[in-house]
Each structure stands twice: as C-alpha cells, then as structure tokens.
Amino acid sequence: MNLTLKEIYKIFNKRVNCEKDRLINGISIDTRTLKKGDVFFAIKGENTDGHNFIKDAFEKGAILCVAQKNYNEKTVVVKDTKTALLKLASYYLNKFKNIRVFAITGSNGKTTTKEILYKILSKKFKEEYILKNPKSFNNIIGIPLTIFGLNNKHKILILEVGMNRLGEIKQIMSMIKIDVAVITNIGLAHIGLLKSKKNIARAKSEIFYGLKNGGVAVLNRDDEYYNFLLKQAKEIVTKPKIISFGMRDDADLKISDINSNNKYIIFNLKIKNQSVNIKTRLLGRHNVFNIAAATLVSYYSGVKLQGVKKVVENFKIKNMMRMEKKYIGGITIIKDCYNANPDSFKTALQFLKENKFKNIVAVAGDMYELGKFAKKFHNDIGGLFSSIELKRLILTGKYSDYYTNGFFKAGGNKKIVKIFDKKQKISRYLQTVLEKGDTLFIKGSRKNKLEEILDDLKFISKRR
After folding, report:
1. Which of 6, 111, 380, 394 shows the smallest number of beta carbons within 10 Å?
2. What is the helix (H) or strand (E) element at residue 245, kind and residue range?
3. Phi, psi (5° rounding) for residue 280?
4. CA torsion 205→210→215→220, rounded to 10°?
5. So what's the pLDDT on residue 263?
6. What phi, psi does 443 have (nearest 5°)?
C-alpha cells in the first residue's frame, strides 16, 4: 500500500514514536483478518467495539492503532475513528491523480447497476484496471476500506453509496471527489427513518456534494423526483453535465419496446445515432432501468451500445440473492432475499403477474425500516398478493397479520394462508405442499434470512 506512517501522523497532526518513513501494509478494522504491518482502526459498532481488541491487534503485528482513547505510545487518538477512517481514505484517493471515480446511489438497484457497469467497463479496460466495492461496502466504513484497495494500476473506481439518514451521504461525499454521480431512483426504502419520500430524495441528492465542478450527473428521467434532483445538482455543483435515462422521449438514453416472459426480457436502447435491442435474463422491468443507467455511464466512457449488448446478454447475478431464478426437481424457484421494501415487492409481484407464473407458493417476510408506515405498506403488499395465481401464501415475522389483513380485504382465499414463527417450520411445510410445476417465490428483508429455507434442497430434488 502506497502510504507511510509519516503521512498518517501528518494527516492527524500527531507525533508518535515509531518508524515514520515505514510503508504500512494495509488498513484493518478487524483483528481476525489483520496482517502484520497493518494500521488498526478501533471502530465502535452496533455489536462490537474495536477498542476491546487493540491489545490483540498489536499482538498480531499492527504497527499503529487509531483509537478514541490512548492505549500506548503507538496509538493515535482521534475524536471519532469512523471520521478519521474517511479522512485518511480521502487523502489516499487524492494520491491517484488520473483515476476516474463513479458513484452510484438510489433507493433500489444500486448494487445491480454497479455490477453491470463493472462488467461493461471491464470488457473495455480489463478487470485489473477497475476497482469496485466488494459486496455492499457502501457506508462510511465500507467506502474507505474500498478506497484503500487502490493501486497504481487502477484507472476507474466504482463506488456504491448507501444511507440510513439525512446527512450520511453528504458526510461521505464531502470528503470523496467523484467524476460521475448516478441516482437510480427514489423509492420508499428507509421511509420509516426519513419520514417522507421527499426526504429520501434529499438524502440521495447529497451525492452531488462529491461531484467535481463540471462533473456528470446521471438521473432517471421517469422518476417523479427528477426535477427536484436536477435542481439539487445545479445548486450544489458548478456547471454539472446532466444526462438521463428512461422511457420519456426527452431522455438522453431512451428505453422502449419492453417485452418479457418468465425467461428473459427484450428491450431497446437508443442514444443519438445508436440503437440496440438487448435480451437479458435478469428478471423484472426494474432491471431494464438498472441496465440503462449502467449503459449511459458506459457510453460516456467510450463504450458503444453494441459493446454493452455483448456484456449484458451474458451477465448473470451471482450470489446476490436478488430475483435469482433456478429450476430444481421440476420446480421454479425465485429467490429475492437481499432486500425488501414496498417498491421492490411491487416490482417482484408485477413480474410474477405479467409473466403468468402459476401454482405459486409464496413465502413473505417482513419489510423493515418503515416506521409508522409499516402497517399500511404490509397491508398494501398483502392486497397485491391477491392479484397473482397463488397456491399457498406463507408468512413469517411480526408483520404477518398486516399482510393477511390486506390479502383478505382484497378477496384473497383464507384457506391458502399459513403463518409460521420459525424458518425450520416453513421448510418442513414446503415438503408437504411443493409439487412439480410449482413456482416457489421467497422474498423478505435481509434481516429475515429467508434464504436459509433453501439450505436443504433434498425435499425438492426427490421430486425429479
């Protein structure tokens, strides 16, 4: 890693009795993965406090510790270690003068858009020249850790940026300067924390605080908050270049002719004098917009639409738990266990309805971070379940009764509903009801861990 102890002391304006010109090996926040020569940041989290592991860090070979309290002469004391981590990442990023930085936020589609963009640009520039967040390292801790992975080979950095509150993205982006800012959409995720959709839009628009003067803002032209985001970009950034994607005629990248079945989606993308039909196995119309966002960024990075087509048509979501489909023992399994909010639930149910899936055995878990809106939105989604061809509706979680209220009110069949308090009970019940030709649909928030229902697939494979 191209960073010395001397630089770290200078950044935090501290004097510590160590080998000042020594190159550090890396940055660590976890003693389980810490390597000799690392600098350890003692981060206080929800469940653990890194300050309790400072002794362990030094025993494992840490050459310096950044903490909120003094431990020994090799400790740099700061007011807040998370802010310090971000400050160091900002300094480190600035060492790479020729790198282009793309940042992606939005209520839905951030990770998928990031992964598609990475694949498209990797085809043009090669993977070793591009760095992206691993998994969903998209917060004040994950983004700095991603940046510390930069080396002199990298030409492009792709950052997914998430948030749970107003001011969170601003705190990050005020320290991280970017060339392109993408907002996929404004939805209902985190509405319980931010209280209104307008506040969600305001929070997402904070990404513009990192956009360089004259930088590119990529917006969803079909989004109801497009004009608000446009205004925010112009107020926060000096002379931004605004480009958009969507189905509206005035979008820079125009989406049209969307057709789908239960295997793939075909649609057209057009920009200036280029037009291309794309066929993707990514499920749901929402993924057309994710592809379009990634395509627009790629186009302005020198990739022609035909180049996008070749990549997207072979793109597969691996281990992302987002609308993942597989066939086992004559049963279609659609697993969407990474995230659940009213928007993503509506999109998933719309997909099942449009593509005429039959004999659906649906397993639904709670949607979180809805606050005072929890009852309303679980009722609403429960009502939407009545619009698809259900064989069984299996519910789990504290909001199950709200789902059932909405389902019954919309005319749903009470006889097909089952509520369970444990995932193991759901697995045992599925063994008794699943048959060849059925569709098993599973969706819930990450905290539900509903993918565990499928850990043992023997009961399905026996039905081959």
Report:
1. 6
2. strand 241-246
3. -125, 150
4. -20
5. 84
6. -150, 140
Q: Which positions of the chain have pLDDT values less than 70?
A: 15-20, 318-322, 456-464
CA 150 to chain centre: 21
Could you report the per-residue pLDDT of 171-180, keeping only the tens digit for each?
Answer: 999 999 999 9
> What is the predicted pLDDT for the residue at 191?
94
The CATH architecture to which 96-312 belongs is: 3-Layer(aba) Sandwich (3.40)
Task: Encode burial over 82-114: b for 16+ CB neighbours within 10 A, e otherwise.
Answer: bebbbbbbbbbbeebeebbbbbbbbbbbbbbbb
Report pLDDT digits (tens) over 150-185.
999 999 999 999 999 999 999 999 999 999 999 999
Say what the pTM is.
0.92
The residue count for the chain: 464
Q: Residue holding tokens 């793109």?
A: 315
pLDDT value of position 261: 84
Three-point CA angle 54, 59, 65, nearest 5°: 40
The side-by-side arrangement of strands in the sheet containing 38-41 is: 26-28, 38-41, 64-67, 75-77
**Which CATH superfamily hosts domain 5-79?**
MurE/MurF, N-terminal domain (3.40.1390.10)
Which residue in 359, 323, 362, 364 sits closest to 435, CA to CA?
359
| Short-list 389, 435, 438, 397, CA closest to 416 | 389
d(CA 315, CA 444): 24
What is the structure's pLDDT at 464? 44
For residue 323, what are the β-bridge partners?
Answer: none
For residue 97, what are the contacts with CB-CB under 8 A and spacing of at least 6? Answer: none
Of the candidate CATH numbers 3.90.190.20, 2.40.110.10, 3.40.50.410, 3.40.50.2300, the domain formed by 324-461 belongs to 3.90.190.20
Question: Which pLDDT value is given to residue 108?
Answer: 94
Q: Which of 51, 204, 173, 42 is nearest to 101 (CA)?
A: 173
Locate 86 and state its tokens: 């971000």
**pLDDT for res 319:** 60
